[in-house]
Amino acid sequence: MTARLVVLISGNGSNLQAILDAIRLRVLDAQVVLVVSNRQAAYGLVRAAQAGVPTRYHPLKPYRDAGRSRTEYDADLAQIVAAAKPDWVVLAGWMHILSDAFLRHFPYRVVNLHPALPGQFPGAHAIEEAFAAFRRGEIKQTGVMVHLVPDEQVDRGPVILSAEVPIYASDTLETLTQRIHQTEHKTLVQALQRLIAGDE
Fold first, then answer.
1. pLDDT at residue 200 above 60?
2. CA angle centred on 87, ends 9 and 185, rounded to 5°
3. Would you tell me how many other CB atoms lie within 10 Å of the CB of residue 154?
4. Residues 89/8, Cβ–Cβ less than 8 Å
5. What whole-number distance in Å separates Cα of residue 130 and Cα of residue 33?
6. 63, 69 Cβ separation under 8 angstroms
7. 14-42 pLDDT per residue, tens
8. Which domains does the chain have, with CATH numbers?
9. What backbone phi and psi angles, to 5 degrees, belong to 119?
10. Which residues lie closer than 8 Å to 66 by C-beta, 6 or more apart?
11. Which sequence positions are flagged as catalytic?
């Protein structure tokens, strides 16, 4: 049965594009039923619209301006996502830590992509931190992982799939970032394939 995916984004949406391409090529037995962004200028919203996928902009600022909490924001986000009846919620460059007010509605159904290996460099600056650690001689490689998000811990949870990315002496932050993004696209699609096959 074709899996229903809701994808949450904050930016360019290149990982969303990788999912859409895999679906179009029949590599992934899924349908993206909704894309939600917390940033209006996110190019991922354009990618979704071009693919005929419904989109929703859900900003945090009006909640802050009204003195409302992140918890209320997450609870409302959960309602928006739940209305699309997803099998899986995919965080593809979603730059917002989700609280239990969201996560409890989708137990072990929220999938996150993080540009580091399990247990390394949690948070929003993983690639920069890995590159700095390499320059200090502490590591020779970094990677990406796709994992489930059972709770509010940042970039932690059962790992579905991870992939190593070597760091070369000739690398700049830009070339490393580009190679990590290429690996992210493949790893995310493979991890979703694994989850969807396990559901059948």
1. no
2. 45
3. 12
4. yes
5. 34
6. yes
7. 999 999 999 999 999 999 999 999 999 99
8. 3-199 (3.40.50.170)
9. 80, 0
10. none
11. 114
Distance (Å, rounded) from C-alpha 126 to C-alpha 102? 24
Structure tokens at 88: 């899986």
Q: Which two tokens stand for residue 120?
A: 């390394």
DSSP 163: E
Give the span between the Cα atoms of 64 and 143, in whole angstroms.
35
pLDDT digits (tens, 9 = 90+) for 45-96: 999 999 999 999 999 998 988 989 999 999 999 999 999 999 999 999 998 8
Residue 15: CA atoms inside 13 Å, Cβ hemisphere, count?
31
Rg (CA), the chain: 17
DSSP 92: S
Residue 51 gets which letter from DSSP? T
Burial of 10 (0-12, 13-18, 19+ CB in 10 A): middle
CB 118 within 8 A of CB 143: no
* Residues, the chain: 200
Query: Which residue(s) pair with 22 in the sheet?
Result: none
The number of angstroms, rounded, from the C-alpha of 38 to the middle of its chain's C-alpha atoms is 13
- In this structure, the number of other CB atoms found within 10 A of the CB of residue 158 comes to 10
User: Which run of H or E residues covers position 123?
Assistant: none
Spatial neighbors of 172 by CB under 8 A, at least 6 apart, are: none
Count Cβ atoms below 10 Å from residue 125 Cβ, excluding itself: 13
Handedness of CA 36, 78, 80, 63 (dihedral sign): negative
The C-alpha atoms of residue 193 and residue 3 are separated, in whole angstroms, by 10
